[in-house]
Amino acid sequence: MKVAVTGVGLLCALGDDPARARSGLYEGACGLVPLGEPGHEDILGGRVPKVDLKPWLRRRKDRKLLPRAAQLALPVAGTALGDWAGDREELGLFVGVRREPPDDGEADPAMAASVRDGRLDTGLLAGAGRDLYPPLLPLKTLPNMVLAHISINLGIRGPADTCAGGPAAGAQAVRMALHAVSEGRCPAALAVVADCQIDGGSLRDRARVGDLSPGGEGAVALMIEPVGASNALFHIEDGGAGGSRQPWPWHFEAALGDCGTANPGLALALGAVEACGVDRGGAWARILRA
């Protein structure tokens, strides 16, 4: 199955222009900087320099409800969609995000009030802990909320789904959009992948499992249309099973950090030839199953 990519949105440590970021990669540019997170001040990571939500956010006050992945995903989705003239009631939306983003410490008072003698006390959690738990916090930590924010702010109402997990979830979101379009279930679809691996909670969790490699954050959106689209930037196809169990050797981590679920989208958008099977002319990319 093959489709055309007619729009690309990108946010990564090397900026938001795919051509410049790609050139920077092959010229040896590095987007890693000291993160300055409390307790991790000297750890390097790939931070997106700037995120402008004003063109895409319908209500400014809603920004406080957007987890970092949604803050990254909404602008790239809007950029990839561009001035597409089709019916957004029919437009598909398939999102790949991490399993569950950590909160930014908002739940700490509730958890502290739920501890007795160094252990979590479920009785306290159901009482004092519950009373201190921020009522809107689930809206920031549920993985499906990234899709919801894109759908609400961009008015997308067609077939939709969220894949949550690591890089395989990012690849699956692209594959689902590819199949939805090639099988005629929607006239076009947005595939959006986003992740942040450099917030305090993520750095803590990476350190707990001994992963001290640089993390990163990034998001990519691909506007996918039928293969005959005249304005195609490049094409992708489902390569099926085959190849190694890890078909993407993330060689660009040295410049962007490990962006987790966003890695497959970065490999496609940045034209990482060895990473995703794009031919040297940049015309085709193959999505392989891990």
State the helicity in percent bands.
25-40%
- The secondary-structure element order is EHEEHEHEEHHHEHEHEEHHHE
Strand runs, count: 11
Please give the radius of gyration in angstroms.
19 Å
Strand content: 15-25%
For the largest beta-sheet, the strand count, sense and barrel status come to: 9 strands, mixed
- For the terminal residues, how far apart are their CA atoms? 17 Å
Rounded mean pLDDT is 85
Number of helical regions: 11
**Helix/strand-derived class?**
alpha/beta
What's the overall geometry?
globular
Residue windows where pLDDT falls under 50 for at least 5 positions: 242-250, 272-284
Structure description:
It is a single chain. The protein has about 290 residues and is an alpha/beta fold. It has eleven helices and eleven strands. Strands 1, 2, 3, 4, 7, 8, 9, 10 and 11 form a nine-stranded mixed beta sheet that branches. The chain has a two-stranded antiparallel ribbon with strand order 5-6. A hairpin with a 2-residue loop joins strand 5 and strand 6 (about 120). The longest helix has 16 residues, at about 165-180. It is globular, with a radius of gyration of 19 Å. About 45% of the residues are buried.
List the helices and strands and how they pair.
Elements: E1 2-11, H1 18-26, E2 32-34, E3 44-46, H2 68-81, E4 92-97, H3 108-112, E5 115-116, E6 119-120, H4 122-132, H5 138-141, H6 145-154, E7 160-164, H7 167-182, E8 189-196, H8 200-208, E9 215-226, E10 234-240, H9 253-256, H10 263-269, H11 273-276, E11 284-288
